[in-house]
Amino acid sequence: MKFFLFSLGCKVNAYENDLLRETFEKNGDTETRQAEEADIIVLNTCSVTATADQKSRQHLRKFRRLSPHAVLVVMGCYSQGHAQEASSLGADIVLGTSHRGEVPTLIQRFLHDHQPLVILDRDTRHESYEEYGAFALTDHTRAYLKIQDGCNHFCSYCIIPFLRGNSRSRAKEDVLREAKRLVEEGCQEIVISGVEIGFYGLDLGDGSYRLGNLLRDILTDSPTLPRLRVSSLNPSEIDDAFLSVIRDFPAFALHLHLSLQSGSSSVLKRMKRPYDAALYRSTLAKIREIRPDIAITTDVIAGYPGETEEEWQETVRFVQDCQLAMLHVFPFSARKGTYAATLPDLDPKIKKRRVEELLGVSKQLQETYRSRFFGQTLPVLFEEDLPEKGYSLGHTSNFLLVKVPYTEPKKGKIIPISYSPAVVMEEN
Questions:
Q1: Which of 74, 106, 235, 372 is least enclosed by beta carbons within 10 angstroms?
Q2: Could you report the per-residue pLDDT of 13-61, keeping only the tens digit for each?
Q3: Rounded to 5 degrees, what are φ and ψ at 317?
Q4: Digit-coded pLDDT (tens) for 269-279
């Protein structure tokens, strides 16, 4: 059969789709890039904001319309929280944030019985790590490697711990085995992924084997890996073991996504974040002492309930003072079931103005950071060749997006490029 995969949201969803691709292909199925041609459609959804919910519903309706006869599987955070809605919109099989490794079996069950399936674990706080028994390499360029699922933070605005469940770590042996195989298959970059990777290891043994230890073992076991990158971390989760990996291994990418959400300590406290502005700043200093040129990117929520103009300006000044490389800015989105959803929301116009203000700051910060590297030769991992558009795209180690004229296939290769305004490409 022909299958079509689509992922919304985080890198974890992308990884899970990669695993399903491998499983389907092992079963003799063929991937199609056109949903209307598919016999099987898998939509991996997101629910981090109200907009994410809306996009999940839109794509569900779209795929049902494009391929009315396909088996439509919907899984992920949106379907965990809105299973019956997903079913009513046309999903044949609805999964939440578990049982995803059973997708091929459930498809056969549906084809036999022709009865819609809704399979959820309602008690998400007592789950164990779900191994898929598959291998997630889609090409030889970049691969996501999931090491952890779930979250224990319960920040006041976030619905994800309720949907993804408790933090659970993948066994060290399984992570190292997959990492080694990725390198053997020629993967140029591994991206360590999870819902909250800073929790890695707390639930394994005595809790002493943590993220830094795992990263060291991956890089030691696979010395030919050109590049290792990690997904988002909180500053409170960066310890001496992690810092030693940044120091000892040049293959560790010159980029960290260090979560912020607000530069005001009073707002961070109300958000129930596990750090304050001072800790963020001191962590930043430790990282830059080791890697002065590292790109630090972050997320900021604009217009958290009760956020005053003074607190907002604290955030603006903070990100400017910290000289971050890029900001992802989101207006506060109330998620039903969270504490923040019970608080009076700010005027949407205020949130919109603050988002626009900080996006302007982000643009300035990006230009300042990029300009530091003009005239330098930087190794670029090319991820996409677009001969019809006349160029190839790739990223430097410090996550600068580069565009060069297409002359020959470059995808999957690391090529030194002279960095200049002429090769700068804006991120979408």
A1: 372
A2: 888 898 899 899 999 999 999 999 999 999 999 999 999 999 999 999 9
A3: -65, -40
A4: 999 999 999 99
Task: For residues 412 and 428, give the distance between their C-alpha atoms in angstroms, rounded to a whole number.
Answer: 21
**Best CA proximity match to 48, nearest among 232, 274, 244:** 232
The tens digit of pLDDT for each residue in 146-162 reads 999 999 999 999 999 99
Q: Is the pLDDT of residue 134 over 70?
A: no
Helix or strand holding residue 84 (H, E): helix 83-88
Residue type, 63: F
Alpha carbons 89 and 265: distance in angstroms, whole number: 42
**Sign (positive/negative) of CA torsion 93, 98, 99, 101?**
positive
The structure tokens listed for 160 are 């994800």
Closest CA to 302 of 363, 259, 357, 372: 357
**Residue showing tokens 């028994």:** 133
- 277 φ/ψ sector (left φ>0, alpha ψ -120 to 50, else beta): alpha
User: β-pairing, 377-386 with 414-418?
Assistant: antiparallel
Amino acid type, 208: S
Distances (CA, A) of 52 to 17, 58, 59, 173, 200: 18, 10, 11, 34, 26
Give the model's pLDDT for residue 360: 97
